[in-house]
Amino acid sequence: MKKKQYIYAGIAIVLCIIFFLYGISVYETKRSENILEGIYVDQVYVGGLTEVEAKEKLQKFIETYLKNPLILYYSDKTWNINLENLIEVQTDQAVHEALSMGKSKNFIFRFINRQRFKLTPKKIELATKIKEEPFNSLIETISKEIAREPKNAEFKIVDGKITIEKEQEGIQVNKENLEQEILKIIWSQTKKIPVPVTTIKPEITEETLSKMNIKEELASFSTKFDQTQAERTTNIKLAAEKLKSYIIPPGEIFSFNEVVGERTSKEGYKEAPIFLNNEITTGVGGGVCQLSTTLYNLALLADLEIVERTNHSLPVSYVPLGRDATVNYGAIDLKFKNTTGGYLLLYTEIKGDTLTMKFYGSKKNDKKIKIVSEVIKEIPPPVNIKEDYHLEKGKISIKEGKPGYQVRVWKIISYNNGTQEKKLISTDTYNPIATILYVGKKEPQAQTRPVVKESNQPSDPRN
Q1: How far apart are the C-alpha atoms of 161 and 157, rounded to whole Å?
Q2: Domains of the chain and any CATH numbers
Q3: How do residues 214-241 score in pLDDT, each as one tens digit?
């Protein structure tokens, strides 16, 4: 009897289990398209919802939070940002992840996961990213108002006195940090964050310049130029800016071409008169040689070692013969070495029609230097005969040439003890400009008699 009871009880238990499992199977089948209970996407509970319902609920949540503007601030400046234009929220990805979470093919495991999530909820992050184009535009807008390049400390010459203008740190918007900070506060009630910036240290500081011990004017030289030649004046001013407050360390070889750079139209240089093949023509950067010449004379007066220098093919008007220095980027340079034992400050100034260059250093020279030009030979201009078919035959037109010269340049050094020393600096040759004799070749036109028409009509007395 008891045995039958056990059998019936066993059958009943099995049937209960079967019915229970069947019930679970039916339940899980009906809920198969729903997200399991206990699942959140960020702060939004999506458990038990279908895909469509979850997306709609998330969209309302997103609209609620993104409608409030993001406030960025830096110092006394603020920017109100529309997050809807800046943020891309990947709702489809989040809902897909929520739908698949805990969805085992086995309905029993799926049921177990459902119960487990109810007790220990699961959270899925709502993936967001910054839209690249609007974000770059935002960075550009903010940068225009707060970003600045670092400024080196520099020497200033005021009324002959040397002062140092303190350096200034540069500032730029830290794009990566700003992006991270925005993504952090998207789902916060308060959306106000400072603009993160990166400071950029200048290369030259006030301390650096102070240690150079530059305090005395060592030498000065000036030349004049014609301000009415607008293009040439522009070129002189552009090159002068490159040389302004340039520092030459002790023992360094200064290169004019390296410091001033290539003279091109892109850099703002204009076409102006230059010497080419013993003739005056035009070329981009014409006039820059006046700076190299002025600087050459300054280097001579400062008793620096001249490493490279070339005279013009023809004499120039702004310095005596033998004291010019031509330059041509990539071909001809002016180079000299700082042999003073200390730092040199090259100061360049333009006032009216006068270009002035000065060297400042630690101490004045204990000697006086004078530069003297000596013409040792005058070269007469050759005579070239050219036929001119615009000039009447038998006539002659003369274009006067100019003589050339051979010149020696001397440096006379006077020491404090009363002694003098004379050094030969250079021996230069300037080519003559040929005299051109134009011989007319134009044939005279033949004279013709006017043609008179005969007429039987009486003449009109009014003619």
Answers
A1: 5
A2: 39-99+123-211 (3.10.20), 214-365 (no CATH), 367-445 (2.20.230)
A3: 999 999 999 999 999 999 999 999 999 9
